[in-house]
Amino acid sequence: MEKSEEGFVLQLRLRPGTTVSLQIPVDTLASLEKVAASRDMSLQALIKFYIGQGLRQDLAKLFADRVLEKTAQVLTRHIPSEEEISSIIREICTEAVV
User: Fold this and answer.
1) C or N: which end of the chain has fewer Cβ atoms within 10 Å?
2) What angle do CA 27, 29, 32 make, to 5 degrees?
3) What is the pLDDT of residues 49-68, one digit of tens each?
4) Distances (CA, A) of 54 to 7, 41, 95
5) Residue 2's pLDDT is what?
6) Strands 9-10 and 2-3
7) Half-sphere exposure of 32 (CA within 13 A, CB side)
8) Nearest Cα to Cα of residue 46 among 29, 26, 21
9) How would you class 12 by CB atoms within 10 Å of its CB: exposed for 0-12, middle for 13-18, buried for 19 or more?
10) Cβ proximity of 75 and 83 under 8 Å
């Protein structure tokens, strides 16, 4: 644990890992190395950061889709009109984007 001047505590949670091998185009690897150097990060840390960032976005989208699906199911049990349910779901989606 590390305590900063602001009083925040950084807690790292080590998790088991595995090694993967993937082929990356040479020019993409060169770009990744440049970005990593500009951020004062290792290439491995940058790739992990990008994977984590994309994964969190995708998981959040999956969760939101699941919530909408369940919302539609609940509405179906209480509202007989499919048109009204679709309208409510569209309104929720519109409001969520703003």
Assistant:
1) C
2) 110
3) 999 999 999 999 999 999 99
4) 29, 18, 24
5) 52
6) antiparallel
7) 16
8) 29
9) exposed
10) no
Q: Distance between CA atoms of 31 and 26, rounded to whole angstroms?
A: 9
Please, are residues 93 and 68 in contact by the beta-carbon 8 Å criterion?
yes
Helix (H) or strand (E) segment spanning residue 7: none
Can you give the pLDDT at residue 8? 82
Amino acid in the structure at residue 84 = E
Model confidence pLDDT, tens digit, residues 18-61: 999 999 999 999 999 999 999 999 999 999 999 999 999 999 99
14: tokens are 């080590």
- In angstroms, the CA 93 to CA 54 distance is 21
- Whose tokens are 């779901």? That residue is 89
